[in-house]
Amino acid sequence: FFFFLMIRRPPRSTQSRSSAASDVYKRQVHGDACLQQDPESKVACESSCKGNMVMVFGEITTKAVIQYEQIVRNTLKDIGYDSAEKGIDYKNCTVIVAIESQSPEIAQAVHVQKPVEEIGAGDQGLMIGYASNETDELMPLSHILSCKLCHRLEEARKDGTCAWLLPDAKTQVTVEYKVQGNDYIPVRVHTVLISAQHIPSITLQEIQQQLREHIIKPVIPAKYLDENTNYHLNPSGSFVIGGPAADAGLTGRKIIVDTYGGWGGHGGGAFSGKDPTKVDRSAAYAARWVAKSLVGNGFARRCMVQIAYGIGIPEPISIFVHTYGTVTEGYTDTDLIDIVLKGFDLRTGCIIRDLNLKRPIYYKLAAFGHFGRTDPEFSWEQIVDLSAYKKV
Questions:
Q1: Are 30 and 47 a contacting pair, CB within 8 Å?
Q2: Environment class of residue 379 by beta-carbon count within 10 Å: exposed (0-12), middle (13-18) or buried (19+)?
Q3: How far is CA 343 from CA 68, 290, 293, 313, in A?
């Protein structure tokens, strides 16, 4: 949130969720199972949960033999939901499956008997990529810290460092930025907010002390913390009831957590449960790839890339680049669009090919964000060398 008129240095807040938060868990249910057996699978699958019930529904066309109910139970077990006291029990929960094949009309329009270059977009929509030079990952500091805090919470729960932690958790970090011309320079962490599900026997004081020592301290660089940093650690007090027992969850309700924490904008489409012919996923990865490459090659200090598609149409309908006035001297945003057109093939099938998106790599992306990750399999985080397009 921006407060330009209220204080001299505007803070910006970003949140993240653990893999066990109800909305995040849903995305892990239908990740890679089809692609592991059949890379040509066409998947548009959703899921929801509440209490002791999980529902998986949508359209899947695949040669894979899939035991949907077992995937649901295995996912719950992997997260840590092994008793009703934690939110849901993988062993005895109710699993409802309502899955049909993809519409033949969509299949004919998008991919049937088409070479890679002619594969059309699986639907219409616009996708947004963003990059900023404020961190090594070329991500907004507020968002990268929020995601890393959630990841650290899961590590500490699973390795026993904080054995009192239960699966559900959420974080939020507010960073104070200095406005210098068109640049936003992170100065300090203004507020850290963590809500972590816990066993009943631990005190709030113990929770707060351990969150500071074992979660915040290893994640947030000391240079950003000072005596005026605000800490809201389990501000609701007790957080024993969590997961589906406390909140219903649904695929696609945390799309800002998945992306840039509110920086750069969002096209509105969720990524999870979709094969890469769905441009909601693949073109969003491509837009990040483009934005990160432009910033990484020094063409701008901040960059937003918007790409729009129409169902069955291979080429983008439009490409837009906005650098917030940070474009390198001698270039314009229009120049950068020309570089994008020369340096990237943004046809749907070519994105899938060039980023190698038919691999079963999506399970771990269900939590902690899709961008700014250092895992080598996430090809959209690799900066493309664009030096050939620089002006002499």
A1: yes
A2: middle
A3: 41, 9, 10, 20
- Length of the chain in terms of residues written: 392
Name the residue type at position 390.
K
d(CA 225, CA 310): 46
Task: Note if the pTM is more than 0.85.
Answer: yes
Burial of 133 per CB tally in 10 Å (0-12, 13-18, 19+)? middle
Closest CA to 242 of 23, 14, 13, 15: 23
- Reported as a single tens digit per residue, the pLDDT across 246-269 is 998 888 888 999 999 999 999 999
The one-letter amino acid code at 5 reads: L
Based on C-alpha coordinates, what's the Rg of the chain? 22
Tell me if residue 32 falls in helix, strand or coil.
coil
Count of Cβ atoms closer than 10 Å to residue 150 Cβ: 29
Residue with token string 């936003």: 184
pLDDT digits (tens, 9 = 90+) for 197-224: 999 999 999 999 999 999 999 999 999 9
